[in-house]
Design goal:
Catalytic activity: N(1)-(5-phospho-beta-D-ribosyl)glycinamide + (6R)-10-formyltetrahydrofolate = N(2)-formyl-N(1)-(5-phospho-beta-D-ribosyl)glycinamide + (6S)-5,6,7,8-tetrahydrofolate + H(+)
Protein name: Phosphoribosylglycinamide formyltransferase
Number of helices: 7
Oligomer: single chain
Radius of gyration: 17 Å
Number of strands: 7
InterPro entries: Formyl_transf_N, Formyl_transf_N_sf, GART, GART_AS
Largest sheet: 7 strands, mixed
Shape: globular
Pathway: Purine metabolism; IMP biosynthesis via de novo pathway; N(2)-formyl-N(1)-(5-phospho-D-ribosyl)glycinamide from N(1)-(5-phospho-D-ribosyl)glycinamide (10-formyl THF route): step 1/1
CATH architecture: 3-Layer(aba) Sandwich
Bound molecules: glycinamide ribonucleotide
Enzyme class: transferase
């Protein structure tokens, strides 16, 4: 059965581009009938919009500044998303807190990537907080989105060592490289796992 993905971005869109590139290189459409139907941004100036268009993906903007309330914005956003009948909505650097109604509407088909090893450092400024806390490792997490911010079931993580010379910027750059590795993998596994067993897959233990 055909499965559409809608990706939401707010900025540079490098995670979106990594997923689009993996989808193309791995033949998601030909092999699994999975396609990225649209990239939607809440910011008209998001750099990722041009990247999406270069990759031949339809784009749309739902500018949060045009709406009086969070609820009104989320209603308009959901309309734009639902026009593509998505099997999965992927938050890729989408920097808006979503209303409980929006999250409930996409329950079981809404993923996020967060630049920390959750449950450590939910919220913002994750890299500086990891450095300030003296962490020896940092990383990133792909998780299902639930009503509470950055708390849903964890699907995949990658670990990055924190170096004594690290700044938030240098650490963020190394974590971002790992984000690009794990997000496309988690998206595909989630869609295929759901497809086959009705549940997302998890790692297996040695016998
Ligand atoms: C990524 O590091 C992502 O983990 C983070 O924003 C960046 C977006 O980069 N997301 C969050 O902080 C969500 N709370 P990108 O636009 O280049 O993919």
């Amino acid at each position: 059965m055909k499965k559409n993905i809608v990706i939401l971005i707010s900025g540079g869109g490098s995670n979106m581009a990594a997923i689009a590139s993996a989808a193309q290189q791995q033949g998601w459409q030909e092999r699994h009938d999975i396609r990225i139907a649209a990239v939607i941004s809440n910011r008209p100036d998001a750099g990722g919009l041009a990247l999406a268009r270069e990759a031949g993906i339809a784009t749309a903007v739902v500018d949060h500044k045009a709406y009086a309330s969070r609820e009104d914005f989320d209603t308009a956003l959901a309309q734009a998303i639902d026009a593509h009948a998505p099997a999965l909505v992927v938050l890729a650097g989408f920097m808006r807190v979503l209303t409980p109604g929006f999250v409930a509407h996409y329950e079981g088909r809404l993923l996020n990537i967060h630049p920390s090893l959750l449950p450590a450092f939910p919220g913002l400024n994750t890299h500086q907080r990891a450095i300030d806390a003296g962490c020896k490792v940092a990383g990133c997490t792909v998780h299902e989105v639930t009503a509470e911010l950055d708390v849903g079931p964890i699907l995949d993580q990658a670990v990055v060592g924190v170096l004594p010379c690290d700044t938030a910027q240098t650490l963020a750059a190394r974590v971002l490289e790992q984000e690009h590795q794990i997000y496309s993998r988690a998206v595909l596994a989630f869609l295929l796992g759901k497809n086959e067993s009705g549940q997302a897959p998890s790692a297996t233990c040695p016998r």
